[in-house]
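Box S1 | Example of a co-folding query
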Amino acid sequence: MRCVALPFVFLAIFVLPVDAADWKNTESLFAAKCYECHNADKMKGDVDLKKFATDPNVAKEFEIWTKVKDSIENGDMPPRKAKQLTTEEKAGIIGWVNAELDYLAQSQSGDPGPVTMRRLTNVEYDHTIRDLTGQSYDLADEFQTDGGGGEGFTNTGDVLFMSPAAMDKYLNAARKLADNATIMPGTGIVFHPQRIGLRGKEQLKAQAQQGLYVWYQQKSAPHLPKDDEPMREAEYMLACWKHKHGQTPLDQLAKEMKLSVHFLNNWWNLVNSTEPPSRYLDLTRVAWRELPADEKTALERIKGIEVQLHSWNNPKHPGSGVQRQQQDSDGIRPYSMQTSVKDKGQIYLCIGDTGDGNKGDIALVTYIEVSIGKKKENYFHWRAAPKNQAKP
Ligand code: HEC
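Box S1 (continued) | Returned holo structure for heme C
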């Protein structure tokens, strides 16, 4: 504790307040060499030094005391024709003034003085925006220049005030900044180097496309089966078959069989189409085109086609069928598939192009599992186990 306190004790010794005895000595020099020209009546250079005879009042009058020191140091005072100060007297006065000014400065140190409410300088503004947004926009280029006080600093609080014109410029800058921001779910507010919004042609086009897409989606929603509703593929295929063989108009069939007329038209186009070339579509449309004219057999075959269509998602044997459901409107989803490897020497997993004409199809195998009885194990762990390595 004592060690910590020591520096403060020294500090207190060095920095002393005005010492009355010191002042008495110094004052006698002023009285002898200065007062004759610097008193209340005769105020040469507008300076009255005699009024400080009892109290030098350095704290308040530091400016005059700085001048006193300077004028003596420079040799301006006393004037040449007046009684001169000896070298010791000069040193004495300068030493006293310096000690007093030092004490004053020390006693005020750490106090920045009154803090003015002020606007940011232009550089501060730009840097603040950069720190907040991660982008440099140099918006302050439009603002009025700083440092109008003529003191050479740009951050003098007294001249960094707001005017109505400056306020307008700040609001404009804020608008410009907002033009570069997007707010999206997941990302929050993001600032971009370029302007975003409804102004550019590209943005207008994108918005229009989005609008059309939403419009069509809303219009079609009532006619589309819900996610968990049956797609009634067999019924649509049968209706198409009836249209082909019985010449019944499609809309009449739709009414009779309570099908969507739009969907039925789609189905009719699908089963008769050969474009785009697709092995998956052919599993349905070629099979449909090969249906016999006999209704009973046709219906049986149609049910067979539907079973195949659904087979990929057969919950009992996922992926066991040959046909997957078209996922075009669904996005891509993972599907699990399983097969028995009992008594089989080798198993091949073959992945082919979907044959829909698109390039760059990707199949991603994320996990292979081996089930032995009720035990399930990661294939690679199972394979790495020494007892399994001998097996094919
Ligand atoms: C014979 C008269 C005379 C005597 C003695 C004299 N001065 Fe001066 N002093 C002047 C005059 C005249 C001026 C104004 C000079 C000017 O404005 O150029 C002046 C100006 C000053 C100023 C103002 C300087 C400024 O920059 O504004 C100070 C401070 C000053 N004197 C201090 C002193 C001190 C300290 C002494 C004693 C050591 C002293 N003077 C002795 C005549 C005197």
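Confidence is low (pLDDT under 50) at residues 1-16, 325-331. The two ends are 80 Å apart (CA to CA).
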